Amino acid sequence: MKHASxxxxxxxxxxxxxxxxxxxxxTASPASDRAVGAKHLKLAFITNNASDxxxxxxxxxxxxxxELPNVEVDFRMPTDSAVATQRAIIDDLLAKGVDGMAxxxxxxxxATDMLNNAAKQALVITQDSDAPNSNRACxxxxxxxxxxxxxxxxxxxxxxxxxxxVIFVGKADAQNAKERIGGLKEAxxxxxxxxxxVRTDDADHTRAKTNAADSLxxxxxxxxxxxxxSYNGPAILSAIQDAxxxxxxxxxxxxxxxxxxxxxxxxAIEATIVQQPFEFGYQTIVTMNKVLxxxxxxxxxxxxxxxxxxxxxxxxxxxxxxxxxxxxxxx
Amino acid sequence: MFRKFGREIGIFVxxxxxxxxxxxxxxxxxxxTNLANMARLIGIYGIFSIGIAMVIxxxxxxxxxxxxxxxxxxxxxxxxxxxxxxxxxxxxxxLAVGMGLGAIHGLLVTRLxxxxxxxxxxxxxxxxxxxxxxxxxxxKGFGSAQGFEALRTAATTNLLGVPIPFVMLIIIAVIMAVLxxxxxxxxxxxxxxxxxxxxxxxxxATKRIISSTYIISGLFAAIAGILLAFYSNSxxxxxxxxxxxxxxIAAAVLGGCSLRGGEGSxxxxxxxxxxxxxLQNLVNLLGIPSxxxxxxxxxxxxxxVIGDRLLAGRDR
Lengths: 331, 316
Description:
Chain A is of the alpha/beta class. Chain A has helices spanning 2-26, 52-67, 83-96, 112-121, 144-158, 175-188, 205-218, 232-242, 258-266, 277-292, 317-328; strands spanning 41-46, 71-76, 100-103, 123-127, 138-141, 163-169, 193-200, 222-227, 250-254, 271-274, 304-306, 310-312.
């Protein structure tokens, strides 16, 4: 009895300490900065889940906040990728009273109402995933179809004589997955490269590896595998290593997980297509600050700011990794 | 006695039929690589499923296992990669944390009389949150395993062609089967699961028995957690192991455990685990759309349980 209650108290205390700590780092803006000419702004950045990708974007928002003393940034990572979790965060922020928010909507196709509602009360920018039918002021992020085309071009280079390919992704109905796969198929149209299947794993890394291993079993003459989401690259690489097929089965993937970069460097992965989340974070905050201070020209006529994706080959990895480690504060 | 065996024979037949069907449709199912791949996963899943089954036999439930994988995986990665602990120390520490968390569950269930569902549901939430907080929402991994190559090799390699996790599962299964079937502890456990109050009045230390099952479940979750971490080699704190406890519960129930407690066997749990893995494998091998994965798994579990129900009805 005594033990149990002591433990309960400790846990509570621990949770409270954690809560306070993260609250402290989230909103860092001394009140004295209000004196500066520009309007004091409360801006929010809302991600669609919790991952490394967003910790880099956070650095971008922090850089912008450091440059703009009148801006206070509230960075929110929902604990899961459920639409309801994100919705609750947005409602809370609106209730709290923010001037602008940059949102990566979890379900862009059905987020229109939610975004329009938010846009009535604050400036709304979409980032990472766009909801073009909503009243968002603009979109800042990747053109995933173009990124898919880049992956397709890499696949063509890796397989000049064509071959069988399987694509791996967490959820095939996710907007970025649809666009990347669409762009890829567009790029390889008319070649002898044949996409056999798209296997999904619901973002479970273990299943991602099992899917890759099972595909190698099912089609021993597979020529290449494509990983659409960030963890798919390492999962495919790991399965290919287990099957002793490094080099025999080519890999093209997306994003910059540590194992992916190691794979590109060793030559086991042909290329990876990387986004620039740091720029998402930085540019959304800077743009929102400009617009809210009356500079409407910050938003282009087509209401889209595309942050280009980069293709990384073996020779690009070292320089990229140095830059990345610096952004993540690892170095 | 016949009824108890009948259950296992039923699921065994279902497993055989399923394997034969898949093998007929795609002979590569029986290829060495595929069997080794499956055996590795059966090993990992089987170990924690046995732990969950122990809790279920005692009349409880353990929902925290999936989140424990995330927490222990993150801690393991930090200990090995960031803190450069010697790997035997890291492994012992992880096993101790797993057992410690299990002991806490046991204390809360037996001393404070909180329902196991609630205790372990809180565990599910707390451990997931702690994993995400400790990892700062970054995916943890093991890189090139510098300094603990031996551990990674041990967790991922094959022994005479049999994957290590499967070997470990067999060892654990034999020990647990003996413990359940041939010892006083085993008899007391079944008795406690059937009727805790009656067992207590007849002199069985039910609190200790129940607590022990949570500690065993925590220990096995830690063992499986280490193997799983090295299998995926990447631990995303928000998704790693998410809902895996349900696979363990499904395997236990398929294998004849009753959620009311007091029933179940290790052989049954092994068969249940194997069945679940064959199902996952066949979805991929037969090219069934991945989106149907859960539906196929759910449907086969339902068929198994319905079959068991009908058989049981005839016996009575």
